[in-house]
Amino acid sequence: MKKILLIILPLFFCFAENEINVNLSTDNHLTPIKIKEIENKDFFYSQDYLNDLQEVLYFDFNQNGRSYVSKSNDCLYEIKLIASGKNLKISFINHISNSINRYQDILISGKLSKDRQKIHQISDDIFFKIFKKQGIASTKILFTERRKKEGEWVSELCLCDYDGHNVIQLTDDNQYNVTPCFLPKLSRNAFETFLYVSFKKGQPKIFKGSIDNPNGESLFSLPGNQLLPCVSPNCRMVAFISDAAGRTDLFLQHYNSVGKAEGKPIQLFSYPRAIQATSTFSPDNKKIAFVSDKDGPPRIYLMDLPSKYYNKRQNVKLITKQNRHNTSPNWSPDGKKIAYSAKVNGVGQIWIYDIESDKEWQLTSDVFNKENPKWAPDSFHLVYNTEDGNHSELYIINLNEKDPLQISKGVGQKRFPCWEPGKTKRIP
Predict the structure, then answer these.
(1) What is the percent of the chain where pLDDT is above 70?
(2) Where does a domain end: 131, 159, 190?
(3) Of 46-50, 73-77, 264-268, 307-311, which gets the smallest average pLDDT?
(4) Mean pLDDT value across the chain
(5) Are 18 and 95 contained in the same domain?
(6) How far is residue 369's CA from residue 413's CA, in Å, rounded to a whole number?
């Protein structure tokens, strides 16, 4: 078994806990939206293809956590579709303001992967008109797919739409690639780049790749193992785990405004006979949460990021007190929550730590082990992977509805999902 598993999935002794299930204080009222049957006026493609496009709209408005598709004629919002030739006309009717928004005709290509994207974009626009919030229908998810090839385990980077469709395998180097993370978008047209760990050089090293050039290049020349990279929202810091100094410590590399490394990586946190693991930055770039077993089983600690002088034995605050085995923290883009995986009665569940109230909440409760939760840019949806022997799948869930939805399918073990970030404000 590769050494990375000693850090990502450490086998620590933990006590059995009583399951505690606390309801989240969210607005769980769902708004009904009527989507009328598509009116077919000599559509160039088949009726089945038309039905597939309509199903995309149904999915988007049933899974956004704010609305559901209703057959009632009393809905305050209505979506009307007309298919003619190779065009699809979509109108959004707001009965509250008595207004109609007619979208520019969508040219249907006949390639479902492309046409789905066009529908997702319309869904996000309508969602914003109703709820004044950014939608996630047109976002993507980065993940890994692990499978055996010629008797050896390989793990490749893949990309899919938020609903699990349009899967693209990015890497094809027959290597073991894990824990990808997108770099924040600092502009609307930012190039989609990401970091990931690969064993292509023997020891695990961190690489920087992109959608167009996924194999990328090595990020650091630091000796030893490099694992679990995490990028600050302003792209000025990369935190990661390394044993370069002899122990498995949390390191930090600074970057300037043009992406050039400033100095060498420094030990941010170290503790005798302890293993540090997954980290996550606060949206204001002033704090970092990370996993450590310094007090026994793995738990999540919070630490201020000093501006000048570093002491590798910083003062830290324990934030996960409810359970004794906690991993994979991820800070929400709105800065209000940290999602993580915690063992409850021997099963990994998704929990949420509320920053303001200093309380922990359990989100999931079924029998499958769940790991690696990552927030969507709306700070409302999460994606995670299950881990059940030889089976690992991707699920999404939102804070209003506790029923997770499996979005992955097919062969291979899907792990380490990372949701495409929204545009990030530049914060020094």
Answers:
(1) 89
(2) 131
(3) 307-311
(4) 89
(5) no
(6) 14
pTM of the model: 0.91
Which tens digit of pLDDT belongs to each residue from 153-199? 999 999 999 999 999 999 999 999 999 999 987 655 455 899 999 99
304 and 226 in a single domain? The answer is yes
Same structural domain, 150 and 118: no
pLDDT range class, residue 388, cuts 50, 70, 90:
confident
Based on the fold, state whether residues 17 and 126 are members of the same structural domain: no
Question: By the 8 A CB rule, do 261 and 253 touch?
Answer: yes
How far apart CA 326 and CA 344 sit, in angstroms, is 10
Pairing verdict, β 405-406 and 39-43: unpaired
120: CB partners within 8 A, 6+ apart: 56, 60, 137, 138, 161, 162
Q: Which CATH number fits the domain that encloses residue 278?
A: 2.120.10.30
Within this chain, do residues 80 and 188 fall inside the same structural domain, yes or no?
no
Decide which of 131, 166, 186 is a domain's last residue: 131
Pair (221, 97) in one structural domain: no
Whether the per-residue pLDDT at 382 is higher than 90: the answer is yes
404 in any annotated domain: yes
Cross-strand bridge partners of residue 324: none
Question: What's the whole-number mean pLDDT along residues 233-251?
Answer: 95
Residues 6+ apart with CB under 8 A from 250: 239, 240, 241, 267, 268, 269, 270, 276, 279, 290, 292
Q: Amino acid identity, residue 208? A: K
Angstrom distance (rounded) from CA 187 to CA 235: 12
Q: What's the confidence (pLDDT) of residue 188? A: 54
Q: Inter-axis angle of helices 47-62 and 112-131, to 10 degrees? A: 40
Pairing state between β 106-107 and 87-94: antiparallel
Determine the structural domain holding residue 246 and report its residue range. Answer: 5-25+140-419
